[in-house]
Amino acid sequence: MTQDPGRKQVTDVLVGEWEALDRLLAGLSDEEWESPTCLPGWRVTDVVAHLIGTEAMLAGDPTPDPGVDVAALPHVRNDVAAFNEQWVAALREEKPAAMLARFRDVTARRAGKLARMTDADFAAPSWTPAGQATYGRFMQIRIYDCYMHEQDVRAAVGRPGNEDGPAAEAALDEAGRVMGYVVGKRAAAPDGSTVVIDLTGPVRRTVAVKVDGRARLVPAPTEPATTTLRLPSTLFLRLCGGRPAPSGSVDVGGDRELGRRVVDNLAFTI
Protein backbone atom coordinates (compact mmCIF):
# COMPACT_ATOMS: atom_id res chain seq x y z
CA MET A 1 0.00 0.00 0.00
CA THR A 2 1.28 3.48 -0.81
CA GLN A 3 1.65 6.13 1.86
CA ASP A 4 -1.56 7.87 0.73
CA PRO A 5 -3.72 5.12 -0.81
CA GLY A 6 -7.03 5.84 -2.46
CA ARG A 7 -10.51 4.97 -1.25
CA LYS A 8 -10.86 1.71 -3.18
CA GLN A 9 -7.44 0.46 -2.10
CA VAL A 10 -8.11 1.16 1.57
CA THR A 11 -11.57 -0.39 1.37
CA ASP A 12 -10.33 -3.51 -0.40
CA VAL A 13 -7.57 -4.09 2.15
CA LEU A 14 -9.86 -3.49 5.14
CA VAL A 15 -12.58 -5.81 3.83
CA GLY A 16 -9.91 -8.39 2.97
CA GLU A 17 -8.65 -8.23 6.55
CA TRP A 18 -12.16 -8.84 7.89
CA GLU A 19 -12.36 -11.87 5.61
CA ALA A 20 -9.04 -13.15 6.97
CA LEU A 21 -10.32 -12.72 10.52
CA ASP A 22 -13.54 -14.52 9.61
CA ARG A 23 -11.60 -17.52 8.29
CA LEU A 24 -9.43 -17.62 11.40
CA LEU A 25 -12.30 -17.31 13.86
CA ALA A 26 -14.45 -19.87 12.04
CA GLY A 27 -11.76 -22.49 12.60
CA LEU A 28 -11.42 -21.98 16.36
CA SER A 29 -12.80 -24.39 18.93
CA ASP A 30 -14.94 -23.10 21.78
CA GLU A 31 -11.95 -23.62 24.08
CA GLU A 32 -9.71 -21.50 21.84
CA TRP A 33 -12.21 -18.64 22.00
CA GLU A 34 -11.56 -18.63 25.76
CA SER A 35 -7.76 -18.47 25.39
CA PRO A 36 -6.09 -15.53 27.15
CA THR A 37 -4.29 -13.07 24.88
CA CYS A 38 -1.33 -10.81 25.59
CA LEU A 39 -3.74 -7.89 26.06
CA PRO A 40 -4.52 -7.25 29.75
CA GLY A 41 -7.80 -8.84 30.81
CA TRP A 42 -8.78 -9.95 27.31
CA ARG A 43 -9.44 -13.44 25.97
CA VAL A 44 -9.82 -14.17 22.27
CA THR A 45 -13.57 -13.57 22.54
CA ASP A 46 -12.92 -10.18 24.15
CA VAL A 47 -10.66 -9.14 21.25
CA VAL A 48 -13.51 -10.03 18.89
CA ALA A 49 -15.94 -8.04 21.04
CA HIS A 50 -13.66 -5.02 20.69
CA LEU A 51 -13.55 -5.40 16.90
CA ILE A 52 -17.32 -5.77 16.78
CA GLY A 53 -17.78 -2.70 18.96
CA THR A 54 -15.64 -0.37 16.87
CA GLU A 55 -17.29 -1.38 13.62
CA ALA A 56 -20.73 -1.20 15.26
CA MET A 57 -19.98 2.35 16.38
CA LEU A 58 -18.96 3.25 12.82
CA ALA A 59 -22.15 1.62 11.55
CA GLY A 60 -24.19 3.86 13.87
CA ASP A 61 -25.26 1.18 16.35
CA PRO A 62 -25.89 2.26 19.97
CA THR A 63 -23.31 1.39 22.59
CA PRO A 64 -24.65 -1.29 24.95
CA ASP A 65 -24.90 -0.92 28.70
CA PRO A 66 -22.02 -3.02 30.06
CA GLY A 67 -23.66 -3.45 33.44
CA VAL A 68 -20.41 -2.64 35.26
CA ASP A 69 -18.19 0.38 35.88
CA VAL A 70 -15.62 -0.29 33.17
CA ALA A 71 -13.62 2.84 34.06
CA ALA A 72 -12.71 1.20 37.38
CA LEU A 73 -10.93 -1.73 35.70
CA PRO A 74 -7.14 -1.57 36.21
CA HIS A 75 -6.29 -1.85 32.50
CA VAL A 76 -8.66 0.97 31.47
CA ARG A 77 -6.59 4.14 31.37
CA ASN A 78 -8.42 6.53 29.03
CA ASP A 79 -11.77 7.27 27.40
CA VAL A 80 -11.02 5.19 24.29
CA ALA A 81 -10.18 2.17 26.44
CA ALA A 82 -13.37 2.70 28.44
CA PHE A 83 -15.41 2.73 25.23
CA ASN A 84 -13.73 -0.47 24.08
CA GLU A 85 -14.40 -2.13 27.41
CA GLN A 86 -18.11 -1.35 27.25
CA TRP A 87 -18.49 -3.73 24.32
CA VAL A 88 -16.17 -6.30 25.89
CA ALA A 89 -18.18 -6.32 29.11
CA ALA A 90 -21.53 -6.35 27.32
CA LEU A 91 -20.58 -9.36 25.17
CA ARG A 92 -18.53 -11.22 27.77
CA GLU A 93 -20.99 -14.11 28.13
CA GLU A 94 -21.84 -14.52 24.43
CA LYS A 95 -21.13 -17.94 22.94
CA PRO A 96 -18.55 -18.27 20.15
CA ALA A 97 -21.15 -19.00 17.48
CA ALA A 98 -23.08 -15.88 18.43
CA MET A 99 -19.91 -13.79 18.47
CA LEU A 100 -18.94 -14.99 15.01
CA ALA A 101 -22.45 -14.20 13.75
CA ARG A 102 -22.21 -10.69 15.24
CA PHE A 103 -18.81 -10.17 13.63
CA ARG A 104 -20.08 -11.30 10.25
CA ASP A 105 -23.18 -9.12 10.49
CA VAL A 106 -21.39 -5.90 11.40
CA THR A 107 -18.53 -6.34 8.95
CA ALA A 108 -20.98 -7.11 6.14
CA ARG A 109 -22.90 -3.92 6.94
CA ARG A 110 -19.69 -1.92 7.13
CA ALA A 111 -18.41 -3.36 3.85
CA GLY A 112 -21.65 -2.31 2.19
CA LYS A 113 -21.38 1.19 3.61
CA LEU A 114 -17.77 1.56 2.49
CA ALA A 115 -18.68 0.39 -1.02
CA ARG A 116 -21.27 3.16 -1.28
CA MET A 117 -18.94 5.92 -0.11
CA THR A 118 -17.37 8.44 -2.47
CA ASP A 119 -13.93 10.00 -2.58
CA ALA A 120 -15.48 13.09 -1.01
CA ASP A 121 -16.82 10.98 1.87
CA PHE A 122 -13.32 9.63 2.49
CA ALA A 123 -11.87 13.14 2.42
CA ALA A 124 -14.41 14.46 4.94
CA PRO A 125 -13.05 15.59 8.34
CA SER A 126 -13.26 12.93 11.03
CA TRP A 127 -12.06 12.10 14.50
CA THR A 128 -9.49 9.31 14.50
CA PRO A 129 -7.49 7.58 17.26
CA ALA A 130 -4.51 9.61 16.00
CA GLY A 131 -6.35 12.94 16.24
CA GLN A 132 -8.50 14.96 13.87
CA ALA A 133 -7.96 13.93 10.25
CA THR A 134 -10.21 12.43 7.56
CA TYR A 135 -12.54 9.47 7.37
CA GLY A 136 -10.12 7.78 4.97
CA ARG A 137 -7.30 8.20 7.46
CA PHE A 138 -9.49 6.55 10.10
CA MET A 139 -10.00 3.57 7.81
CA GLN A 140 -6.24 3.23 7.36
CA ILE A 141 -5.94 3.01 11.13
CA ARG A 142 -8.77 0.44 11.17
CA ILE A 143 -6.65 -1.83 8.93
CA TYR A 144 -3.77 -1.58 11.40
CA ASP A 145 -6.00 -2.26 14.40
CA CYS A 146 -7.78 -5.23 12.84
CA TYR A 147 -4.54 -6.75 11.58
CA MET A 148 -2.80 -6.37 14.93
CA HIS A 149 -5.73 -8.04 16.68
CA GLU A 150 -5.73 -10.86 14.16
CA GLN A 151 -2.12 -11.49 15.13
CA ASP A 152 -3.07 -11.30 18.83
CA VAL A 153 -5.60 -14.07 18.26
CA ARG A 154 -3.11 -16.14 16.27
CA ALA A 155 -0.50 -15.79 19.01
CA ALA A 156 -3.02 -16.77 21.69
CA VAL A 157 -4.09 -19.98 19.94
CA GLY A 158 -0.75 -20.90 18.38
CA ARG A 159 -1.82 -20.47 14.76
CA PRO A 160 0.67 -18.17 13.04
CA GLY A 161 -0.16 -16.93 9.57
CA ASN A 162 -1.08 -14.03 7.30
CA GLU A 163 2.27 -12.38 8.05
CA ASP A 164 2.59 -10.80 4.61
CA GLY A 165 0.22 -9.46 1.99
CA PRO A 166 -1.82 -6.23 1.73
CA ALA A 167 -2.92 -5.96 5.38
CA ALA A 168 0.58 -6.61 6.71
CA GLU A 169 1.98 -4.05 4.26
CA ALA A 170 -0.64 -1.51 5.38
CA ALA A 171 0.12 -2.15 9.05
CA LEU A 172 3.81 -1.54 8.37
CA ASP A 173 2.92 1.69 6.56
CA GLU A 174 1.07 2.78 9.69
CA ALA A 175 4.02 1.93 11.94
CA GLY A 176 6.43 3.66 9.58
CA ARG A 177 4.51 6.93 9.91
CA VAL A 178 5.63 7.36 13.52
CA MET A 179 9.25 6.27 13.28
CA GLY A 180 10.48 9.86 13.09
CA TYR A 181 8.80 10.54 16.43
CA VAL A 182 10.10 7.27 17.90
CA VAL A 183 13.70 7.89 16.83
CA GLY A 184 13.90 11.64 17.37
CA LYS A 185 11.75 12.18 20.46
CA ARG A 186 11.40 8.92 22.35
CA ALA A 187 14.84 7.45 21.62
CA ALA A 188 16.48 10.92 21.64
CA ALA A 189 18.74 10.18 18.67
CA PRO A 190 21.36 12.96 18.41
CA ASP A 191 21.44 15.48 15.60
CA GLY A 192 23.26 14.14 12.56
CA SER A 193 22.46 10.50 13.28
CA THR A 194 20.75 8.04 10.96
CA VAL A 195 18.77 5.02 12.13
CA VAL A 196 18.02 2.23 9.67
CA ILE A 197 15.43 -0.46 10.45
CA ASP A 198 15.95 -3.42 8.13
CA LEU A 199 12.95 -5.75 8.05
CA THR A 200 14.11 -9.17 6.93
CA GLY A 201 10.71 -10.75 6.13
CA PRO A 202 8.10 -12.03 5.64
CA VAL A 203 7.63 -8.40 4.45
CA ARG A 204 10.97 -7.00 3.38
CA ARG A 205 11.51 -3.27 3.55
CA THR A 206 13.88 -0.68 4.93
CA VAL A 207 12.80 2.21 7.15
CA ALA A 208 15.39 4.96 7.52
CA VAL A 209 15.21 8.01 9.80
CA LYS A 210 17.63 10.93 9.59
CA VAL A 211 17.94 13.41 12.45
CA ASP A 212 18.89 16.80 11.00
CA GLY A 213 17.24 19.49 13.07
CA ARG A 214 14.24 17.17 13.19
CA ALA A 215 13.83 13.44 12.69
CA ARG A 216 12.25 12.45 9.38
CA LEU A 217 11.87 9.45 7.11
CA VAL A 218 14.40 9.37 4.29
CA PRO A 219 15.41 6.91 1.56
CA ALA A 220 17.81 4.19 2.71
CA PRO A 221 21.25 5.85 3.00
CA THR A 222 24.20 4.72 0.92
CA GLU A 223 26.67 5.52 3.72
CA PRO A 224 26.84 3.51 6.98
CA ALA A 225 24.04 4.34 9.39
CA THR A 226 24.67 5.38 12.98
CA THR A 227 22.79 2.29 14.06
CA THR A 228 20.99 -0.47 12.20
CA LEU A 229 18.25 -2.75 13.51
CA ARG A 230 17.60 -6.04 11.69
CA LEU A 231 14.49 -7.98 12.62
CA PRO A 232 11.48 -9.79 11.10
CA SER A 233 8.56 -7.60 10.05
CA THR A 234 6.16 -9.54 12.30
CA LEU A 235 8.36 -8.92 15.33
CA PHE A 236 8.67 -5.24 14.42
CA LEU A 237 4.89 -4.88 14.43
CA ARG A 238 4.62 -6.69 17.77
CA LEU A 239 7.14 -4.30 19.30
CA CYS A 240 5.36 -1.28 17.78
CA GLY A 241 2.12 -2.56 19.32
CA GLY A 242 3.63 -3.02 22.76
CA ARG A 243 3.20 -6.79 22.55
CA PRO A 244 5.53 -9.26 24.30
CA ALA A 245 8.37 -10.47 22.09
CA PRO A 246 11.24 -12.94 22.48
CA SER A 247 14.36 -11.39 23.96
CA GLY A 248 17.46 -11.10 21.81
CA SER A 249 15.47 -11.19 18.59
CA VAL A 250 16.75 -7.85 17.23
CA ASP A 251 20.21 -7.64 15.65
CA VAL A 252 21.63 -4.22 16.54
CA GLY A 253 24.61 -2.89 14.60
CA GLY A 254 26.65 0.29 14.93
CA ASP A 255 25.83 2.43 17.95
CA ARG A 256 24.33 -0.27 20.16
CA GLU A 257 23.22 2.11 22.91
CA LEU A 258 21.19 4.20 20.46
CA GLY A 259 19.89 1.05 18.78
CA ARG A 260 18.70 -0.34 22.08
CA ARG A 261 16.95 2.95 22.93
CA VAL A 262 15.07 2.74 19.64
CA VAL A 263 14.04 -0.86 20.31
CA ASP A 264 12.93 -0.01 23.83
CA ASN A 265 10.76 2.85 22.57
CA LEU A 266 9.12 1.31 19.50
CA ALA A 267 5.76 0.78 21.21
CA PHE A 268 3.32 3.47 20.12
CA THR A 269 0.08 1.50 20.56
CA ILE A 270 -1.21 -1.31 22.72
Describe the protein's architecture and organization.
The protein has helices at 7-26, 30-33, 44-59, 79-90, 96-116, 119-123, 135-157, 166-177, 179-186, 233-240, 256-264, and strands at residues 125-128, 131-134, 194-200, 204-212, 214-218, 227-231, 251-254. With 270 residues, it is α+β, with helices and mostly antiparallel strands. It has two domains: 7-172, dinb family like domain (Four Helix Bundle (Hemerythrin (Met), subunit A)); 178-264, Nonspecific Lipid-transfer Protein, Chain A. The strands form two sheets. The protein has a five-stranded mixed β-sheet. Strands 1-2 form a two-stranded antiparallel ribbon. Helix 1 runs parallel beside helix 7 and helix 8 packs across helix 10. The longest helix has 23 residues, at 135-157. It starts with 6 loop residues before the first helix and ends in a 6-residue tail after the last helix.
Number of helices: 11
Helical content class:
40-55%
CATH topology of the largest domain: the name is Four Helix Bundle (Hemerythrin (Met), subunit A)
> Domains counted in the coordinates: how many?
2
How far apart are the termini? 23 Å
CATH superfamily of the largest domain: dinb family like domain
Radius of gyration: 19 Å
| Strand content range | 5-15%
Q: Can you tell me the overall shape?
A: globular
Spans of at least 5 consecutive residues with low confidence: none
Q: In CATH terms, what is the architecture of the largest domain?
A: Up-down Bundle
Q: Give the beta-strand count.
A: 7
CATH C-level class of the largest domain is: Mainly Alpha
What class would the helix/strand composition place it in? Answer: alpha+beta
User: SSE order, as H and E?
Assistant: HHHHHHEEHHHEEEEHEH
Overall pLDDT metric: 92
Largest sheet, spatial ordering of strands: 5-4-3-6-7
Oligomer: single chain
The description of the largest β-sheet is: 5 strands, mixed
